[in-house]
Every structure is written in structure tokens, then in C-alpha cells.
Amino acid sequence: MALVQKNLKQRALLIVLAVCCGFMASLVDSIRRYNRLVWDLRVIWYTIIIAVLFFFFVWLLEHILAWLNREPETCRNGSRKLREIFSFETSKKQFALIAVVLVLCWLPYLIVTYPGVLWYDTEQQLLQWNGQPNTFTDGHYLSDHHPVFDTMIFGTFLRLGAFFGSADRGVYLGCIVIELVTIAALASMILYCRYIGAGWRFCFAEMVFFALFPFIPLFSVTMVKDSLFMPFFIWFAIMFIEAVRTQGSLLRCPWYFAVFLLTSLLVGLTKKTGTYIVLICCVVLFFAVSKAFRKRVAVVFIVFLSVFMVLLPKIVFPTFHIQEGGKQEMLAIPLQQSALLVKRHVNDIPRQDLDVIYKILGDDVADRYQWWASDNVKGYSWNADNDQYLVQYAFVWGRGLVTHLGTYVEAYVALQEAWMGIPAPNDPQPSDLVMQTYILGSNHRELPDSAKLGLHVKESDMVQQLQETVNSYAVNTPIVDLLCSRAVWSTWMLLFVLYECWLREKKHCVWLAPYVATFLFLWISPATVTIEGMRYLIPMVMIAPLMLGMLGAGEQTNSAQAAEDER
To answer: CB–CB of 449/123 below 8 Å?
Structure first.
């Protein structure tokens, strides 16, 4: 009887998750089909179809994971030799072997994209570094809109290249360094998965995935803040998990404590959301470790908070005339909702409320509204004079929420639809919901100020053909489009991991904190269907194998004493 009740609870939870995924996908489908939310019968049957698809996704992934983590009793000669070469045991030799495999598989992408891929944001950062006018400053000072630490790293490579006669070579060197550091982080992840008990097949499949899934190498050979952030985030996630597994005993080791602190700082320095991810993880870790080691976690938290809340904004930035990032990034979603409110219901808004919105966003905000991104609405800088209207705006926004809830929901869903929607056969623009890559920055075709940086246009049809081939295959190939769905890798994969943790009665799942925190920040993204959305998604893609590895590792709660004995 107890077993029957347990099975019913399991199925009930899975049904709830499936219906939620189906309903979210139906909302996206409605907006994309009618350009607004329309409640019709299609919402119901579309919800059911996607719910069934989610059921199949969970069933298939469960069976794949079970097979990957099952150790065969006997091995064929070929398999035995392969296991001898790739044992995935923690050693320098295995680390080097994995790294070599990834380097060889990624090398063609690196060659084709010479002299290095730049994104538009990176170009603006380089202009800042060179003291030239850009989107964020007039060239006389730096801006922390994009992390100034990244700007310094990218700018150093640019000047290094210029010193040796070619700025292009400096950019290319930067891309090579980022790629190699990322490979080192991924190799560490594979070895760690084996260390915690994941199956040999799983680790081998993990290596193949990192080697052949094109979006990972194509993103990693790009000079953009998110690619620089990725390896540090991976190492941080690994160290966080190990601290949880050992109940904090590893923090007693001076070198581990120092590396953990340094990695945490680098995560925050290379990406704005990284700051909050680290703070959330530190709070979680404080309660996850033994009481004897909580002081060490508190030290990491206090040092980290001091650096990012005091040292940088109060001392470093004013001293070196660095402009802080504006409040518009934190307000992207409410500002977007207000823009659609004005566009749809301008005559229904009280005049005094409308004046407040216009003071912050301008009286042309309705014309600037774009459902797929908030940049046109929020802009790239923040006028300090707007601070005096923020309290009034909060009340205005709240009244709009009460009177036009549907409009607010529509604006939010439209902005975040890549995390919800599943590509449909007749979708007018399926690439919005599927992973895409951008490497045309190696040609500098879409970089209007590249000449000011000493960069040269490199006309190459190979780059464009590679980008079009990868993107077209991901969008137009059945089943592949689902495997490359942004919603699958962001929302579905996380729900699967959470469901499996609950199914397996894992009582200690705090190791999910980096993954869950990253997921939560996805849902305040200022764009998801554009190529920008890929930058936000990649961290979820890259550490998903680590989360799946934890699922296959059995009970992962080593005692502090056990960890000490191993050493």
C-alpha cells in the first residue's frame, strides 16, 4: 500500500511539472501566433501535447542516465582498451588526455574563426579601453555597465597585439587563451564526475558532448564577457559541490580555502549576475556545512561582500573615474511592462501615472517597444535624475499590475519566451526558440567601429557558411531542434534534475544551488530569443552534465572525517 501511494505521488508530481511546461509553452505559442495572448482551445490541446512531450523527455533521459551509469560485468576488447586509455581517474595524465581530445575537436572552429570573434558589446568595451567614444561613455572614462574587469582583460590583449604589430592577433590570442582555460575547466568537471562516482560511460559521453556539441566550442572561442566567466563558474560549482559533500571540511585546508575565495571573486568580477550567484551559494553553504566550518564560509561571504559592495563602488571606481552600471538593468522587466501598458492602454492610464512613466522612459516609449528585447525601452545608461521618481514609479507600476494584469503577463512572457516555448513545425521564426551561434564577429562585418581599434575586415565565406550550417541544422532538423531547444536546456533540464532528486529521496540537494541560482537569474533576462539569450543560457548548458553526474553518483554526503581520511 505504501509503495502504491509513493508511486501515485511520483506520478502526480510529474503530471504537475508536465502541465506547467505545457501551459508555459502554450502561452508562448499564443503570443507568437497572434502577436498577443489569446485564450482559445488551442491553448488546451497545445498544453496537452507539450506535457506528453515532457513525459517522454523525462522517461528517455532516465533510461539514458541509468545505462550510462551502469558498469558492465564484461567488456569487449575494444571497450577495454578504451577504458585503459580513458580511465577518468583523477590524475595529470587523464587531465591532459581529455584536454588534448577537446583541443583537437575544437581546433577547426578556432582556425575558421581567425582572427577571433568579437561581439558588439566587446567592441564597445575595447573602445572604452582605447579612450574612444562608445555606447556607454564619451571615451574619457570607463563604465562598469559591462564588468570593467573584463574590459581590462580584453583591452590588454588588444594592446598586446598592437604592440607586436597587429591588433587582430591580440584578439585572436585572447580567444585562444579563453578557449584553453575553458577546456581546462571542462576537463576538471569530467574527472570530478568520475571522482564522485558517476559511471565510466557517463564520463565518456560527457567528454564526447563537450567535444562535438558545436555551440560549446563556438561560444568558447569568442571574446565576450560570458565566455570569460564560464571557466571560473564551472570551477566554482565544482568546489561548491565538494564543500557540500565534505560538510565543509575541505575549507580547513588553506590552499583550498584560498582557491575557493579567489574563484568566487573571479565569478563576480567577470559577470554581474555572478556576484549574486556567489552570495546566494555562500548563504546556502553556510547552513550546509558543519558548524565547525561555518566561520570560514562567513569569511568568504564577508570578504566577497566587502569587495563588491564597498571596495569597488566606494573606493576603486571613484579613484579611477569608473562609472557604475545603471539601474536600468535591474528594472528591465517592469520598464518593459510599462512600455507595453502605454502602447496598449494609454487612454486608460491616469494622467499623473502617465507623467511618471514619461519622466523615466520618455513620451515616445510606446514607439520604442519591442516584444523580444528591452534595450530600446530601458536604454544603455541611467539618468541619476530619475532616482527621485522611483518611489512614485513603484506605485504606478503596482496600479498597472492590478488594472492590466494580462498586459503585464504578456510583456513578461514575450520577453522570457525562449525559456518556455518549444519549437513548433509552423512557427514563423523557429530560430527564436532554438540555440544559435554568432561567429560573424571574426569578419568584423557587424562591428561598425572596428577600424578605430586597428582591426581589419576579413572577408571569409567559410565563417558565414559555418554559422549558417550550424544554425540551420539546429533549427530545421526534426528532433535536433528539440535537443537544441533553449527551453529544454534552461527549464526542462532543471525540472528533470529537481524531480530526480525528489524521486531518489535525496535529502541533501544543496549542491544544486549554483544551478538553481543561475536558472533564477535567467528569468529576469532583458532578452531571450535574440542571440543575446544564448549568452545567458550557456552556463546552464555547460554545468548540466555536472548536475546529471551528481544524480548518478549515488548518495553524496561524505562525512568530514571520511574526506580527511582520503587525504
So the answer is: yes
Which residues are bridge partners to 118 per DSSP?
Answer: 223
Distance CA 249, CA 256 (A): 10
How does DSSP assign 464-514, residue by residue? Answer: HHHHHHHHHHHHHSTTHHHHTBHHIIIIIHHHHHHHHHHHTT-S--GGGHH
Other beta carbons less than 10 A from residue 172's beta carbon:
22
**CA-to-CA distance for 35 and 150, rounded, in angstroms?**
38
Residues 353-380: pLDDT tens digits?
Answer: 999 999 999 999 999 999 989 999 998 7
Q: What is the sign, positive or negative, of the torsion defined by CA atoms of 189, 191, 192, 193?
A: positive
As to burial, measured by CB atoms within 10 angstroms (0-12 exposed, 13-18 middle, 19+ buried), residue 545 is buried
Kindly tell me the sign of the dihedral angle through the C-alpha atoms of 60, 64, 67, 69. Answer: negative
Q: What is the pLDDT of residues 373-384, one digit of tens each?
A: 999 999 877 788
Q: Which of 549, 535, 563, 472 is nearest to 227 (CA)?
A: 535
Alpha-carbon gap, residue 52 to 289, rounded angstroms: 40
- Under 8 Å CB-to-CB from 5, ≥6 apart: which residues? none
